[in-house]
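User: My instructor asked us to take a sequence, write out its structure as C-alpha cells, and then describe one feature of it. I'm not sure where to start. Here is the sequence I was given:
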Amino acid sequence: MAESHGPLSSFEAVGAVELTDPADPRAEVFSGLTDAALRRRQDAAHGIYLAESSLVVRRALDAGHRPHAFFLAHRYLDSMADVFAAHPDVPVYTGTDALLASVTGFHLHRGALAAMERPVPRPVDELLTGARRIAVLENVSDHTNVGAILRSAAAIGIDAVLVTPLCADPFYRRSIRVSMGAVFRVPWTRIDDWPVGIEVLKDAGFTVAGMTLGHGAITLDDLVAEEHERLALVFGHEGAGLAAETEQWLDRRVTIPMMNEVDSLNVAAAAAIAFYVTR
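Assistant: Let's start with the prediction itself. The C-alpha cells for your sequence are:
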C-alpha cells in the first residue's frame, strides 16, 4: 500500500504504488534485463521495450503502443496523471531517484520510464506501398546512430526505414531516447533476407543507392540530378561501411564530396545530409 504523505499524497492521487526495495519483483521488468531479454518476454505477443522520459512515453502512447507498466520518480507523478487516468488498468510504480537508479542501473532521464508492448512488425511490402524515399540501415551497430538517423528521417520526411538483421534495435532504450520518440513516427521494420532483399526494393520500382567511400562512386549531387521517382538510400556499418556483397547489388554507389582531407562522416551525419539533399 502506498505510504501516506499528508492528507492525500501524489502517490494516492494517481493510484501509484511506492517501491522501496530494488529487488521487488514488481520492478523486475525495469531492472537487470537486457533489451534482448525484454524482446523475448512473454508479457506481450512481441516482447517489451522501455520508453524513457515523459515526452517519449507520451509519443509512444500517441502512436498507439500499449503500456505494460509505468515507473516514475515522485516529482513526475502529477504531470503524468492524465496518462494514468487514460490507462487505469496499467500499474504505476514510484520511488526515489536513488531507487530508480538502483533498479534500472542508469540515471533516469527526466524521471519517467514505461515498459511498453512491442507492436506487431509490419511487412516490408506494406511499408514500400506509396513510399518515394526510404532508408536502409545495414548493420549500423551503434544505438545512438540508429536513433539519430531515425530522428533525421522523421524531420526530413523519409517515408520508411528498413533495418537489416544485424542492425541495432531501433526500440533499444537509447535509440528511442536519442530519436526523441521519432522512432514512433517513422514506419520501420526489419528486412530479413539481405542483401538479396534489394531485389524486393528494385521490383517495387526503387533505385537503390548505397552511400560508400569506394572508388568509382558518383557524387550525391549527381544522384539528385538523375531525379529518381523512388529512391532507397542504403547506409552501412560505422567502421566497415557497406558489405562488399551489398555493393554488387546496388544500382548506384554514391559518395558525399569532402574537403580539407576529411575522408568520411559519421553515418548519422551522412544520413541527414543525404535525406535533405534528396528530399
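For the description part of your assignment, you could build on this observation: Confidence is low (pLDDT under 50) at residues 1-8. Try explaining in your own words what that tells you about the chain.
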